[in-house]
Amino acid sequence: MSILSEQENRTKTMPVMVEGFYKSFRQFSNYDNVMLVAGGTGITTAFSQVTSLLFQDRSRTIKLIWAVRSPAPLNWFSKEILYLRSWPKSIELQIYISQALFENDCGAKPCSPLDIEAGVQGVVGSQALDYGCGSNYQLAFITGGRPELQKEIANFIKHASGSIAICSCGPPTFIDRARYTFVHNMYKSDYHIDYFEEPYSC
């Protein structure tokens, strides 16, 4: 009120941002193609969404990208990772470790799948990761570095056949990158496409 009292006509134009409506659970079951990109603890929301879709009697394309700073989160989420890997024909899973520096020292270059495997097994244990996968199992779905969200989202939209839903779950900067990429690719599909986000502080 003190600001208005200082104005000649007691009016002032101010920028306002309105958010909402907030919903507890997204209805991704209505889409033919669902992509979820999660950063850090945002995987908890993404995982619940994906598992819900896996149990539905409908054929759809599901892709989940999870970005973490170190292999440590894979320790407390190893059972969930194995569960998703048990649905190889239903979901495409990709995990990125941005600070993937292990005992063999990958240097500044992204670690190879074998380097990642050695480091991750040191965190979650080889028995857990090798369970039911055979002796030749490699963690090819885990790579070093950060995900190229612009490329990943653009390719998903380009190759999708049918309605599309893209959801980002994670810290604000992570969501900003996903939203920016979505906006610049949303008109490159002939199908209905929607974007959702679930922000987290860590």
TrEMBL record:
Alphabetic keyword roster: Oxidoreductase, Transport
InterPro entries: Fe_red_NAD-bd_6, Ferric/Cupric_Reductase, FNR_nucleotide-bd
Single GO MF descriptor: ferric-chelate reductase activity
GO CC terms in record: plasma membrane
Any GO BP: copper ion import
Superkingdom in the source lineage: Eukaryota
Entry-linked Pfam families: NAD_binding_6 (PF08030)
All copies of domain Ferric reductase NAD binding, residue ranges: 31-179
Keyword Oxidoreductase: yes
Protein name: Fre2p
Species whose genome carries this gene: Sugiyamaella lignohabitans
